[in-house]
UniProtKB/TrEMBL annotation, chain A:
Single GO MF descriptor: cyclin-dependent protein serine/threonine kinase regulator activity
GO biological process: regulation of transcription by RNA polymerase II
Organism: Viridothelium virens (Speckled blister lichen)
Lineage, top ranks: Eukaryota, Fungi, Dikarya, Ascomycota, Pezizomycotina
Gene3D superfamilies the UniProt entry points to: Cyclin-like
Protein name: Cyclin domain protein
Automatic annotation (TrEMBL), chain B:
GO molecular function: ATP binding; cyclin-dependent protein serine/threonine kinase activity
Alphabetical list of PROSITE patterns matching this protein: PROTEIN_KINASE_DOM, PROTEIN_KINASE_ST
Amino acid composition bias (Basic and acidic residues), ranges on this chain: 20-48, 75-85, 387-399
Protein name: cyclin-dependent kinase
Length: 299, 461
């Protein structure tokens, strides 16, 4: 089936304003910024895994991660009001609902219950998680009802926060278009370049600089192609080819540096949370903040 | 070290909790203040971006001296009443919904099947808008997908002849969600009921051209409206019509995904839908357009069937039943497989001739356009783009210019619109099946392979 076009400006994204990016409700609530970064990352990763377990295609999963990420900037959306697990679940539910592959509240609740049970540490967000069988885990009827109504409530709050603007454009299809336009597809190593570009686009969803909130998909696609081709030593046309895709050198440079930093960031996070459970709920975040206070000898 | 022992004392706990709460509240206050300034900055920014678009039009944005300073506290007195007009729907960003209390409801306009609509005034600007409350049925799945589609398609459709959705506002309850739209004085259905004569041919052409341009825009962008009818077409007193009610609309693709055939109000529903297709395309909107065209000629809806089968009969009665020649694939449609066709009511009349006889006032090119829109076979139906190029619009009389279009006193501006009975928009639920059990006129044979469950809402007689 041909892609279902999801909007007139389906290639463009609403972007966060500098003011929104500068406003972190979590930090105003006293969440240390490094903890916020960790939690945003963990939630984004959790969203990716849940999406895979729910057998959602890459593009829809990416949309859910972007919606998740948008939630924490600008007004409302404090980590002391909402847990990353709940917001992640609502993001997946909302995005899937708008897609050709909606998921029932029950599937969502089951998958997140499974993840909560199986993922004590952030380190594990990287390994075997993919092997879990989502149908192996059920919750009691009481838990289900409570989780479901929470899911609906957070969905409603997300919609209000976004002013019902839930459109997300992803760069994947563009990326393929660009590779075709640049005559990379079909050449030796063409497929590898495509795969590598997609890998950059996927990990960038986890990047703490939030490139999906600050740059248009066309720019993200261009930067990923640039990096992948360079890495695999596939020659692209000489000159400033990216200008054809409306990206200037400065933006490209900014994105390239950012994208290259993702891997190191992820390794650092993994190490940081190797032996500890990442706080997925508000109560756990509060405990973590208390723990740090005590470690720092406050109070 | 777990930290837990530190908190064994309940009293201590309470004190600490209270302290934290206080801290958070202070920070919240600071946050709110900051947010207020952000909004102000946005408003300022917006006024710069759109000269002359200040809320009440008094402030001239070309004169920076009049711009308000943003020193903290300086606006405390009128901070509350400051209109907050974020640019919500351009691709550049998002912002939280405002409260519906920013609007005063003036009068109820009309109750539809998916919500109700009222005329309202934005308190801060005095601007008149239409507020449509979204119906929150089936909350089991959270925010209804139909309402979501209505918002999303309308949000992204920006066209002179499509009603403008300005923003979504909310009430205190999570179920109170309203669309804020530009207000138009009339809808074509109510308007026609009060007109003594139908629109003049030149006026009809203007209306039809505007309508078709909107439909062409939607189809070009892969949006199906799926509920085109006169009550969903609004008209203002500046000679403009605008397509409204996107409650059935959705994005599609090529090839089209499987879609529900439970769309389009019965009288405007295309034959392929009546016959149960689930893979239809933009041609269904073009059929509705043909029905609207005919209705505007006489002020009477063209095919006023009482239920699916009757609707089909009325269509075949005027246009003749489909033949293997005119519509080779028609037998493959679910409800057509076992159908016995009525004998052609007037065997010697082509659809064109039949339409000419029914609409003697219509010119030759008009008849040809109408016949092409009302082609039973969706593949033969004109597209919106083709319709725009049709010679009917170039023939005399030429379409009237907008400024010459008639104006009418507004019902919506004063009182609730009166409505004559007409079938409501399709309800969600199981798709009706037309099968032998409903055969009253003897044209439908028995279908042996009737699926359990879904059918039988339609009882004849
Ligand atoms: N922007 C508007 N300005 C003025 N009147 C409007 C506006 N939008 C809708 N109306 C009036 O309200 C009526 C119902 O609106 P709409 O069709 O959007 O709601 P609905 O609940 O989906 O209706 P239905 O299910 O009956 O088609 C319209 O027929 C029209 O008379
Ligand atoms: Mg309507």
């Amino acid at each position: 089936m041909a892609p279902i076009i999801t909007g007139l400006s389906h290639l463009a994204n609403p972007l966060a304003t500098p003011e929104q990016l500068a406003t972190s409700p979590s930090q105003l609530d006293g969440v240390p910024s490094d903890l916020e970064v960790s939690l945003r990352y963990a939630g984004a990763r959790l969203t990716q895994i849940a999406g895979i377990l729910l057998r959602l295609p890459q593009d829809i999963v990416a949309q859910a991660v972007v919606i998740f990420t948008r939630f924490w900037v600008g007004e409302s959306g404090s980590l002391l009001e909402f847990g990353i697990k709940d917001v992640s679940a609502a993001s997946v539910y909302l995005v899937a609902k708008n897609s050709p592959l909606p998921k029932s509240p029950r599937s969502i609740v089951n998958v997140y219950a499974l993840l909560e049970a199986k993922l004590p540490s952030l380190g594990e967000l990287h390994g075997e998680a993919m092997d879990y069988d989502p149908d192996s885990h059920y919750v009691s009827e009481g838990t289900y009802q409570a989780s479901r109504s929470l899911l609906m409530k957070i969905e409603a709050q997300m919609l209000r926060k976004f002013g019902f603007q839930t459109h997300v454009a992803t760069p994947y299809a563009l990326c393929i278009n660009y590779l075709q336009a640049l005559d990379v597809i079909g050449r030796p190593k063409g497929e590898d370049v495509a795969a590598r570009s997609f890998a950059y686009l996927n990990t960038s969803l986890l990047n703490p600089q939030l490139p999906y909130l600050t740059n248009q998909p066309s720019s993200l696609a261009t930067a990923s192609v640039y990096l992948a081709a360079r890495e695999l030593e596939v020659k692209l046309p000489g000159g400033e080819w990216w200008e054809v895709f409306d990206v200037d050198r400065e933006e490209l440079g900014f994105l390239v540096v950012g994208m290259l930093s993702t891997e190191g960031f992820i390794l650092d996070e993994q190490k940081k949370w190797e032996r500890r459970k990442i706080p997925m709920t508000v109560a756990e975040v509060e405990d973590e903040i208390d723990r740090r206070r005590i470690l720092n000898g406050e109070d | 070290m777990t930290g837990k022992s530190r908190w064994t004392d309940d009293k201590d706990d309470a004190v600490v909790a209270a302290q934290r709460k206080k801290e958070r509240e202070e920070k919240k206050r600071a946050k709110a203040e900051k947010q207020r300034r952000i909004e102000e900055a946005q408003l300022r920014h917006q006024n710069e971006a759109r000269p002359g678009s200040t809320p009440n039009g008094h402030e001239d944005s070309d004169r920076p001296a009049k711009r308000r300073k943003v020193t903290p506290g300086a606006d405390e007195q009128h901070g509350e009443s400051q209109p907050r007009e974020l640019l919500r729907f351009d691709a550049s960003g998002w912002g939280p919904c405002r409260h519906v209390d920013n609007f005063e409801r003036l009068n109820h306009i009309e109750e539809g099947s998916y919500g109700w609509v009222s005329r309202a005034r934005e308190t801060a600007t005095g601007e008149i808008v239409a507020l449509k409350k979204l119906k929150m049925d089936n909350l089991n799945d959270g925010f209804p997908i139909t309402a979501m589609r209505e918002i999303q398609t309308l949000m992204q459709a920006s066209h002179l002849h499509i009603v403008e959705l300005r923003e979504i506002v909310v009430g205190t309850s999570l179920n109170d969600v309203f669309m804020v739209m530009e207000f138009l004085e009339h809808d074509l259905k109510t308007l026609q009921e009060d007109m003594s004569e139908p629109f003049a041919p030149s006026e009809l052409k203007t209306i039809l051209l505007q309508l078709t341009s909107a439909v062409a825009y939607l189809h070009f962008h892969w949006i199906l409206h799926r509920d085109l009818k006169t009550s969903n077409i609004l008209m203002n007193n500046r000679g403009e019509i605008k397509v409204a009610d996107f409650g059935m609309a959705r994005f599609t693709g090529d090839p089209p995904p499987a879609l529900t055939q439970l769309v389009v109000t019965l009288w405007y529903r295309a034959p392929e839908l009546l016959l149960g297709t689930t893979t239809y395309d933009s041609a269904i909107d073009m059929w509705s357009l043909g029905c609207i065209f005919a209705e505007l000629l006489t002020k009477e809806p063209l095919f006023q069937g009482s239920r699916e089968l009757d609707q089909l009969l009325k269509i075949f009665d005027l246009l003749g039943p489909p033949t293997t020649e005119s519509w080779p694939t028609f037998r493959r449609l679910p409800n057509a497989r076992a159908m016995k066709l009525p004998p052609s009511p007037s065997p010697h009349l082509s659809p064109q001739q039949s339409l000419r006889r029914k609409f003697p006032i219509l010119t030759g090119s008009g008849v040809s356009l109408l016949a092409s829109l009302l082609s039973l076979n969706p593949e033969h139906r004109l597209t919106a783009e083709e319709t725009l190029q049709h010679e009917y619009f170039r023939d005399e009389p030429r379409p009237k210019s907008k400024s010459m279009m008639p104006t009418f006193p507004s019902k919506a501006g004063q009182e609730r619109r009166r409505r004559r009975a007409s079938p409501n928009a399709p309800q969600r639920g199981d798709a009706p099946k037309i099968d032998g059990n409903m055969d009253s006129g003897g044209i439908f044979g028995r279908r042996e392979d009737i699926e359990g469950g879904a059918g039988f809402q339609l009882k004849m007689g």
